[in-house]
């Protein structure tokens, strides 16, 4: 029923776009204005600065920027395509653009002259759709690392060097599990590795909950599945075969969520993306460590009463560390009200000039190398060492980086994997993923 519902909704959107594409009237639109949507409030000042520079170089053109939260962003964007009130340009996500391209609501960017070698390796290539056209201009990139409470680590007798050199395996968890256990403290002051530890009454969890991870596990289980040698699909892009039925994958997630059964990983009920995400669990003293993305660096280091450290992801059975490397892009809508202005704006957004400006704010890592260097320097001025995030991109000998699974029907994959992974977090058998995987692959094969 869920599969049919999602597919039906996609079909309804496609039909609505036919009738909606002729409408106009988006707020702030005019022949002289380019409307631009993004979701990250922290990045808004940087892009406002880029807009001012762009307007100086393009007299007569104005950029109107709208920022909204992640959840509202995608709902309103989809509705805008139907109503004909879509922005000229918007920040796009790798998991979304495939469906948007398939629905033909994006403008090809082949003529912008995007050169993949101008950006961090792999970023530009990810935005080529199955039809061979480019639909995104590289914007920024991020990786995942381990944030930890330095005060708690010191009290546990752990040094930064120890935390930065952890290893793991799905049998006994290696030094990573030992560390998580040692950082866990029950209400009586017993640590997770001490006799008498009460897993039912935990005061501080060794590892914060980032949720069940849905189908990508970006900031939860993906550093472990990646360092175990597992891949989401059987080929890098546009595969029709997911591999959630893999014994490797299932053994890893069984071990990972088993940490919750032992009382070391915060329970799923502790997690709320809006009210109690992983960073809030660290800030409140509820957890000692958390896996999170580079886009959260300023948030973690912004807590006045929390001294934060960062470390690499643990070394896995492959002998390497692993992290997802995601990259956002800017896309132009097919029925942009100011298409020529929109194309100029996206070209500027992807330029070294704008990306160095964005980097200077020390909020994200821009897609160009110079933009990245500007960001590293800006973080350094703030007293923040970002090596745990940048080194995986520079050192391919000891690190494995991978991208989100890029396939069609991402919404359907989410609809199936979201409840499946929540069930596993709550104790369901991982073998149930065999059936879920079959359902996903059936959809992709159509």
Task: List the topology elements.
Layout: H1 2-20, E1 33-38, H2 44-57, E2 62-67, H3 70-83, E3 89-92, H4 94-102, E4 137-142, E5 144-149, H5 150-155, H6 160-163, H7 174-183, E6 185-186, E7 202-207, H8 222-227, H9 247-261, H10 278-283, E8 287-293, H11 297-301, E9 308-311, E10 321-324, E11 326-332, H12 339-349, H13 352-359, E12 365-366, H14 369-381, H15 387-394, E13 399-402, H16 410-425, H17 433-444
Parallel strand pairs: 1-2, 1-3, 7-8, 10-13
Antiparallel strand pairs: 3-11, 4-11, 4-12, 5-8, 5-9, 6-7
Helix pairs in contact: 1-3, 1-16, 2-13, 13-14, 16-17
The secondary-structure class comes to alpha/beta
Largest sheet: 6 strands, mixed
Secondary-structure element string = HEHEHEHEEHHHEEHHHEHEEEHHEHHEHH
Percent in strands:
5-15%
Termini distance?
17 Å
Biggest sheet strand line-up: 2-1-3-11-4-12
Oligomer status? single chain
- Form type: globular
Q: How much helix is in the residues?
A: 25-40%
Question: Regions with pLDDT < 50 over 5+ consecutive residues?
Answer: 1-12, 14-29
Query: How many individual helices?
Result: 17
Number of strands: 13
Mean pLDDT: 93
Overall radius of gyration: 22 Å
């Amino acid at each position: 029923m869920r599969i049919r519902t999602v597919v039906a909704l996609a079909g309804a959107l496609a039909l609505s776009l036919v009738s909606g594409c002729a409408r106009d009237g988006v707020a702030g639109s005019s022949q002289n204005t380019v409307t631009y949507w993004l979701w990250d409030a922290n990045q808004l000042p940087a892009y406002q600065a880029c807009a001012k520079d762009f307007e100086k170089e393009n007299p007569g053109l104005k950029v109107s920027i709208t920022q909204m939260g992640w959840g509202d962003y995608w709902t309103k964007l989809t509705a805008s395509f139907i109503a004909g009130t879509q922005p000229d340009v918007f920040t796009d996500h790798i998991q979304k653009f495939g469906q948007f391209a398939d629905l033909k609501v994006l403008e090809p960017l082949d003529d912008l002259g995007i050169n993949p070698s101008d950006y961090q390796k792999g970023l530009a290539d990810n935005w080529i759709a199955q039809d061979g056209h480019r639909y995104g201009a590289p914007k920024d990139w991020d990786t995942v690392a381990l944030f930890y409470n330095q005060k708690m680590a010191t009290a546990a007798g752990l040094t930064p060097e120890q935390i930065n050199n952890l290893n793991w395996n799905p049998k006994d968890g290696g030094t990573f599990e030992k560390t998580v256990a040692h950082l866990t403290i029950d209400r009586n002051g017993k640590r997770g590795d001490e006799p008498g530890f009460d897993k039912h009454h935990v005061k501080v969890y060794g590892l914060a909950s980032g949720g069940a991870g849905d189908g990508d596990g970006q900031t939860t289980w993906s550093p472990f599945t990646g360092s175990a040698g597992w891949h989401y699909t059987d080929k890098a892009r546009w595969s029709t075969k997911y591999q959630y039925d893999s014994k490797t994958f299932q053994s890893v997630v069984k071990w990972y969520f088993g940490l919750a059964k032992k009382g070391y990983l915060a329970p799923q009920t502790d997690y709320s993306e809006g009210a109690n995400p992983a960073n809030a669990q660290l800030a409140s003293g509820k957890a000692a460590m958390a896996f999170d993305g580079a886009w959260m660096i300023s948030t973690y280091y912004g807590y006045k009463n929390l001294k934060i450290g960062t470390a690499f992801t643990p070394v896995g059975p492959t002998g390497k560390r692993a992290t997802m490397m995601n990259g956002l892009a800017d896309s132009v809508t097919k029925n942009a009200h100011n298409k020529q202005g929109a194309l100029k704006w996206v070209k500027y957004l992807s330029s070294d000039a704008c990306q160095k400006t964005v980097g200077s704010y020390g909020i994200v890592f821009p897609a160009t190398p110079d933009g990245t260097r500007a960001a590293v320097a800006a973080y350094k001025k703030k007293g923040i060492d970002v090596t745990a995030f940048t080194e995986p991109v520079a050192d391919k000998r000891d690190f494995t980086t991978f991208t989100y699974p890029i396939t069609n029907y991402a919404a359907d994959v989410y609809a199936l994997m979201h409840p499946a992974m929540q069930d596993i977090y709550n104790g369901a058998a991982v073998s149930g993923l065999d059936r879920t995987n079959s359902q996903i692959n059936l959809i992709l094969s159509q």
